[in-house]
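Worked Example 4.2. Consider the chain below.
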Amino acid sequence: MTAQGVRPLLATEPVTAFIGLGANLGDRGAALRQAAVALGQLPGTQLRAVSSLYRSAPVDATGPDYLNAVAAIATTLAPLALLAQLQALEHAAGRLRPYRNAPRTLDLDVLLYGAVQQDDPTLTLPHPRMTERAFVLRPLHELAPARVNAAQLAAVADQAIALLQGPHWLHAVGTEL
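Applying the procedure from the previous section yields the following structure tokens:
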């Protein structure tokens, strides 16, 4: 919070943030490609890298399998401003929220925002359940191995997840996912 009690919309220097991408409804591959490209077009934001693409079974939910990846961005958007931008992308992709863990056309989660730790009703950082999910830890480990340790990976080793394509999936043309 600033001295006036208003949260800043922009950071003074770019911060590295990691964004979880997922979809299990509609054209999942197209949704993730469009979302990854759109991340790099957010104000004050550059897409730095994307992980490989994975297929995973829903966790604590029902519905079709998900496609998942993680993106690394550099952004001057403050955490809550970044979250608002991600939710706008979800909404544009047709995301509905009829109930908790409902199937979705697009799911974008702020996993990490630099070294920021925050816990408020709108946004908790680091993401509170990321260490419980193989579909987050495996792609995050590709991009930031120092942020995921062997014990964390071992703890989710029993979750159903399959590597579909390497990080080139974002630019692969004519490939069905």
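The chain is about 25% helix and 30% strand. The CA atoms of residues 29 and 177 lie 5 Å apart. Compare this with Example 4.1 before moving on.
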